[in-house]
Amino acid sequence: MLELLAQSPAAWVAVALIVGLVVGSFLNVVIYRLPIMLERQWQAHSAALVSTPAASVAPAAAVAPASTTSAAATGQRPFNLLVPRSSCPACHAPIAAIHNIPVLSYLVLRGRCAHCKAGISARYPAVELISGIATAVVAWQLGFGWPAACGVVVTWFLIALTFIDLDEQLLPDSLTLPLLWLGLLASLTGWGSGAASLPRDPISAIGGAAIGYLSLWTLYHLFRLLTGKEGMGYGDFKLLAALGAWLGWQMLLPIVLLSAGVGAIIGIVLIATRRQQRGNPIPFGPFLATAGWVTMLWGPPMVGRYLSLFAPQR
Q1: Cα–Cα distance measured from residue 299 to residue 247, given in angstroms and rounded to the nearest whole number
Q2: Would you say residue 49 lies in a domain?
Q3: Is 314 among the domain residues?
Q4: Cα(17)–Cα(15) distance, rounded to whole angstroms?
Q5: Which residue, 127, 174, 181, 268, is most buried by CB atoms nearer than 10 A?
Q6: Contact residues for 82 (Cβ-Cβ < 8 A; gap 6+)
Q7: Does residue 135 contact residue 19 with C-beta atoms inside 8 Å?
């Protein structure tokens, strides 16, 4: 099977598309449930601190894991990425496996619940399609091998982070930090090679993580010092650090310039069309994620073409 995928680009891309669609269905679960899980954990920890005398508060290392603390403190049934089963938002009927086929089930059911016929958001098949198409593009662009596998993992993380930030203006540590550490660990494998390698070498990855975090951290504090306002969140620092760990310090400037440029254009359009009030925050994570994904696939050629504009003519 692996030999067939390695020898047939069409088969490799087709398999990547199918896998991406299936993973996109799971990403819908992550996008919806992870913020709720985090909120419940915060509420449980806050309740535990309020109800516990200060003198008897246990050290942080002795506190029970967040997931068990949340369930025990709230008395709620387990709620995580695996349980309970997916259900209709309207009637709460469990979704049968036959009705959970990515995109296809939504089309067959005409966007309605099989039990109560309530409408289901088109966001669910949209995320599945985005995941499937993006995975196929990575497979096509990077070919069969470990670099493509790394690129696919990065893509899935970025899709989840993008939609969570759009919904909640939140980039969870439970996604940004694993993405960062995976990039650093992958740099030790030697899977990549050449200027456009993925993952990068350890020096580029460590430098990318450090410079990515510190650059936005510095801009954040300078902006707050000058204006008294917070221009972005700490999650943005960690996301850029994660992208730096995967793509190296060399790609940080293109990522920042591309994300800032697109973000400024979209922000102006939203304000001009009155879809966004001046002064209201716009999540920056989706722009960083999109710029990082584009740079991951086409960054070195884009930089090379840009630099060639200034090369002396012979």
Answers
A1: 9
A2: no
A3: no
A4: 5
A5: 127
A6: none
A7: yes
